[in-house]
User: Fold this.
Amino acid sequence: MTRTIIQTENMGFIYPDGTSALHNINIEIKEGERVAIIGSNGAGKSTLFAHFNGINKPTSGIVKIDGKPAGYEKKELLEIRQKVGIVFQNPDDQLFAPTVIEDVAFGPMNLGLSDEEVDKRVEEALTLVGMNGLEKRAPHHLSGGQKKRVAIAGILAMRPEIMVLDEPTTGLDPKGAEQIMKILYKLNQEDMSIIIASHDVEIVTQFADKIFVLHDGNIIGQGTPEEIFNDYETLKMAHLRPPKSAELLHLLRDNGMSINIRLTVEEASHEILHVLGVDAYHNLLHLVKSDLHHELLHELGEEGYHKLLHVLKKNEKNI
Ligand code: ADP
Assistant:
């Protein structure tokens, strides 16, 4: 059976100033999953993530990492942080060393590893994110996408089992965003569990196999992308919208087209082509079988008319 790696039980969190940010959170994340937590600004996504590596301690309930209730002593926190790596939304909050290489080496050095092992891990992490060759650069002189990749490398060098990323594509251009998502997908293929927070439904649809909807500190929905983005009530409550392609298909369906809702642009275009093709074919068949064959004969000419009949007959089984 697949291992549960993060689990919360009736977890709640109140900030010291009295802000009640999370209420009765019950979620389960399994090994190897690609999970997205979606919700509008202020929903509680960052607050929730900070529980996954012990930065926040629940005010009520518990969080279990790899089946064990999280402990908050120094040694226990170190153990959690080796398992769970968090990449923050703004890489400037994470990158502080004068060079890329020093930044990425910081985590593994703190684990007390040998210089040789640290070098090996740094090189491996920079290669994974496609940033080798830029080791001596100053992080604050890099582009947004490059900073993000260095921040990811810094966490990868710790070799966590679970990677948690808060809004991984915010502030990036489409190409930079695509590169980051490809890296995450590749890491997941190599068995790393990935959890992202995002309000970009397009990114989430392409990436996640499980989604939690967070609103006002409550989990108000969970399921596959198909389940979540067909649940308009929940999306509305969370101030979220479905992906554009799903919205388009819903509009077509509302206008009488018999069409299935698809979430990505590629799937949606296939669906539209399929429906248009089959409908047109049925319409033709209907015309030919009705009294309108005289009209068709007139329109197509005798040869065209017979060709059409021939094609329809040949493909009858495929209708
Ligand atoms: P999200 O990441 O979904 O935008 P956050 O987790 O940042 O949401 O915020 C959840 C709630 O907690 C918001 O009401 C926010 O104002 C509040 N909050 C966040 N950080 C703090 C803090 N350090 N002190 C008090 N309230 C906070």
Observations:
- The pocket of adenosine-5'-diphosphate is lined by residues 15, 17, 19, 21, 39, 41-47 (CB under 6 Å).
- The chain is about 45% helix and 20% strand.
- Residues 265-289 form the longest helix (25 residues).
